[in-house]
Design goal:
Strand content: 25-35%
Radius of gyration: 32 Å
Number of strands: 9
Number of helices: 6
Structural class: alpha+beta
Oligomer: single chain
Length: about 230
Amino acid sequence: MCSVHQGAASPQRRKQEALNARLDPRNPLVFDTRELGRRPGALKRVSRSVPAPQDLGIEVIGVPEGAALELDLRLESVMEGVLVTGTARAPLTGECVRCLEPLERELEADFQEMFSYPDADARGRIAAADDDAEDDEEDMFSLEDDMFDLEPVLRDAVVLSLPLQPVCQEDCPGLCSECGARLADDPDHHHDAVDIRWAALQELAGSDQDGEKDNAPRANGDDSQEK
């Protein structure tokens, strides 16, 4: 089962930390764009296999930490910066939300993000309405020393591609509500239990029968003694 550790930073916090942090060129998710240059229209394709960072997923399913994460990127130089378009492929592990059995899947997530030059004109980088301009500017990604960190973009893409309610199979019947048995392993599984809607009536009927027995005439021998 893949679970998010308690106390782990939220996606928004991770994004903000990435925006504020100094980039480490040794980080496998940091990419250098110096070979691309700044001439608009210049293209560069990059393929890289990197170990998946921790907590890459949601509580019930995600990419195991250290699993091979295959990245295919297309870097394009534009007026405002570098447009990164890519695909990430990785194994997924988790558990079925119905029967709690372990499951494995393959993830393929597409993403696109603009990494702006630090000296780019802000007016050319903000496409939203004036009211939202400040918020959008805070979420903008910038190049630092011609490098960019793909991790926050990758996290967003992976989480959005994950099933929120993963199941081992579409028609998984889940678990028995009484004993917890996995119903897919025993399709004929059942319990001879009284419907709770009738239980109260049966209990009432049983009480009436006990009362009738208490009020029944005693045997002849007992009657003669009373006389």
